[in-house]
Amino acid sequence: MSLPNIVKSFDRVPADIVAKAAKFQPAILADVAGRRGALHGRIRALRPHMKLAGTAFTVEVRPGDNLMIHAAMALAQPGDVLVIDGKGDQSSALMGTIMMNACRQRGIAGVVIDGAVRDSLEIDEMDYPVFSVGTNPNGPTKEVGGRIGHPVSVGGVTVHPGDFICGDADGLVVVEREKIASLLPLAEHKEAAEARRIAQIKEGKTSAPWLLSSLVTAGVLKEGETL
């Protein structure tokens, strides 16, 4: 039996896991997830200071039409992040400050659009986290159907409803709902290891300890040779 166009109910990453995962940079989570799950760099924070973390509430629209985004805003729960497959279209904006204000009022944790937005200065003043492929002053239509609560492709990554998503100035990372909890100890270890390495560098130990062996493995140096 096929799913309806609007799936209203799906499992989400528990709020306590979201809170713990949100403490880590997307870069850390991408590394411990096997260097996967990072959205294409074309989708970036509208302003570098913007950060978001939450559970993905997925939306698929036709290019230039935001009808289904309005429906999604009515259905999303506090802590959700709208993750919108806008097909990468930049010919018109799918959202602006009116919709962003409504999202914030409803407790939606942020917006990710594989498409364009507008009213960027006002959104900056709102300090509401928005990630998009760019801006365009042209407005959208509100006429064409789409889907909500289905898997979407955003920035070259498949996002399932309820997955964990986070973003900062580097970009966005998605981790599967079933996987994020198991990555938290690895992320904590990775973060601590990087802090130790930076401390070593500040003490003058700037050479990477793995470099020589990797150069030998790559055939650049012979065994026993040094730089």
What does the model show?
Strands 1, 2, 3, 4, 5, 6, 7, 10 and 11 form a nine-stranded mixed beta sheet that branches. The N and C termini lie far apart (63 Å). This protein is of the alpha/beta class and 227 residues long. A hairpin with a 2-residue loop joins β8 (152-154) and β9 (157-159). It has one domain (15-184): Glucose Oxidase, domain 1. The model has no long low-confidence stretch (mean pLDDT 96). α2 (26-32) crosses α6. It has helices spanning 15-21, 26-32, 67-75, 97-105, 120-126, 180-202, 211-217; strands at 44-45, 52-60, 80-95, 110-117, 130-132, 134-135, 147-148, 152-154, 157-159, 164-168, 171-175.
